[in-house]
Amino acid sequence: MRIRGRVVLAAALALSTVGTTGVALAVDRDAGPATGPSGGAWSAGAAPAAEDVRAAAGAGTGGRVAAPAAPRPAPVVTRPATQVAQAAPASVSYLSDRYRVAPGEAARRLALQELSAPLADTLAARFPDSYAGMWLDQAGGGVLTIAATDPAPVTEAVAGLPDARHVTVVPVRHSRRDLDAAAARLAGTLGVTAGRDVLVDERANEVLVLTGDAVPADDARLAGTLDAAGVPVRARARLDDSAIPKACDPRYCAKAPMRGGIRLDVPRDDGTVGGCTTGFNVRAKSGQYYVLTAGHCVVGGRHQRVDDTWHQFLGPKVPVGLESTNPVLAENAFPNDYAVLPYAKGATTRWAYPRRTVGNAPSLVNYWCVADNPACASKGSRDVPITGVTPYGAVQAGWVVCATGSAYTPAAGEQYVDSGAGAGYLPGTRCGEVIGKASGGIDVRVCARPGDSGGPLFTESDGRALGILNNGDPGEGPCTNPDEKNTYAPVSVILDRVNGRTGLGFQIATQGPLLTPPVGSSNR
Predict the structure, then answer these.
(1) Helices (H) and strands (E) in the chain, counts
(2) 503 Cβ partners below 8 Å, 6+ apart?
(3) CATH number for the domain formed by residue range(s) 176-237
(4) Which helix or strand (DSSP H or E) is residue 85 part of?
């Protein structure tokens, strides 16, 4: 849909004094002339001002205005770079260590990352025939790279950004709108789902058909379908041959409130005990709370019965949740690899905030320091409040993200189930980089081990939920491979799927879990 007014970005992200000012983005349909950089405003290119539109409308209808002006929407605001850096020390540390940049430069990159998602929405609306996506090029200097079929107007539009020297526009052949349309057509022809089985690779400016499950690699329809797509299309296996599931046991943290990143033990049919890591608190529209983890924890060859989950199964054996069968709230088909677990009888009172809690009762992810996360020396272990969900389509390559897991191999005499993580691997939080979405999930450069499955992927600075761990490169023991890749199932895709199947209105909780949610509480 075209925006017929001005698109304004009020921005004062001063390069010489990183972090002293903030950035605000607004789609403003009734704004006055945009000022220059000294005024902190950015115009996304020439567009008729709202008063001109009204005048033109009046001239064509005998002086009558056909419709009132649209209301001015509220701006989307990102914070000063120093504030972002203070909220995300491990992300700053990751950038500093990986790319050998100073903390101030790392802060600038994180501020640009926060700006990139609303900027992408604005450019897609302003230049639908040209805009083709964007990503952060960390290796190339922390540059926000924007793809466009007609680079000139987009380049002109972003030239007024105060951080414009770290924004570049590159030419491509196909717009994001055309690629999305081609992906939808291909998915329809193959009888699969666009965004899950057929998706867009913005950096390659092409469409990907993922094979191996819904689309067999030897599907006779593939060759002709790809040739007729009208845009570049590539078929690739969804999962690498070497990928292994991260499904085993977490560690310990038996105290309220329930938070993402703690151990779940799952007794199996054959008498063994496996398990996963909690991802995020989930709330249905009814007000009932659940725990989100990976589906392969409770759906698989060794899970024929209704699974129950525990914390520290070998003692003190604290009950957590149950596999839901009415309705079914679990699947094991990546990226729909999820289990939404209702609490076991009586378990809510163990894991929820106290009944009289009101006000500050945020939904949390456990940020647990490990030796190979150097930022922990400065800020230490803590809880990160979850503020919402970043849609899968908005996640960009180059973003710095964090993940928590609780996989563990115990030393002799310790009363913990061995997850298979390998001696020397420590459960906790690590940060890394989004390297792509070519799997239909979120591919990251973050170390993980069996037992971390279902654990949360989030942005440290603003507490946005992104995904839960599904699979990744093989490995055990300490994190020694800086290029290790692991893949997370997108939370927004999971919510769309489970809500489409059940109509229960699940959302990632931003408060709770609460025994009695306060009136007017927000659980977006």
Answers:
(1) 10, 30
(2) none
(3) 3.30.300
(4) helix 81-87
Of the candidates 155, 119, 157, the one whose C-alpha atom is nearest the C-alpha of residue 34 is 157
**Which tokens hold the place of 148?**
């466009």
Residue 321, beta-bridge partner list: 343
Cα–Cα distance, 118 to 87 (Å, whole number): 20
Residue 27 CA to residue 100 CA, distance in Å, equals: 36
Element (H, E) at 490: strand 486-490
394-434 tens-digit pLDDT: 999 999 999 999 999 888 888 888 888 999 998 999 999 99
Q: Give the rounded distance of the alpha carbon of 324 from its chain centre.
A: 25
Q: What share of the chain is helix, strand, coil (3-state, %, to 5)?
A: 20, 30, 50
What is the full DSSP assignment across 169-205? EEE-SS-HHHHHHHHHHHHHHHTS-BTTTEEEETTTT
441-458 mean pLDDT: 96
Residue with tokens 């600075």: 461
Q: Which pair of structure tokens corresponds to residue 377?
A: 């020396």
- Report whether 114 contacts 107 (CB < 8 A): no
Q: H/E element holding 104?
A: helix 103-126
DSSP structure class, residue 517: P
Q: 90 φ, ψ to 5°?
A: -70, -35
pLDDT of 164: 87
Domain extents in the chain: 81-171, 176-237, 262-508
Q: Which amino acid is at 20?
A: T
Residue labelled with tokens 């059940």 = 502
Note whether 487 and 468 are within 8 A (CB): no
Q: Is the preceding peptide bond at 80 cis, omega within 30 degrees of 0? A: no
pLDDT at 51 over 60: no
DSSP letters for 2-52: ---SEEEEEE---STTTTSS-EEEEEETT--PPP-GGGTEEE-S----HHH
Least confident range of 171-185, 294-308, 454-468, 477-491 = 294-308
Pairing mode, strands 464-472 and 244-245? antiparallel
- Burial degree of 260 (CB within 10 A; 0-12, 13-18, 19+): buried
> CATH number for the 262-508 domain, one of 3.40.1080.10, 2.40.10.120, 3.40.50.12780, 3.40.50.10540?
2.40.10.120
Backbone angles phi, psi at 341, to 5 degrees: -100, 115
- pTM for this predicted structure: 0.78
The DSSP symbol for 377 reads H
Fold equal for 176-237 and 262-508: no
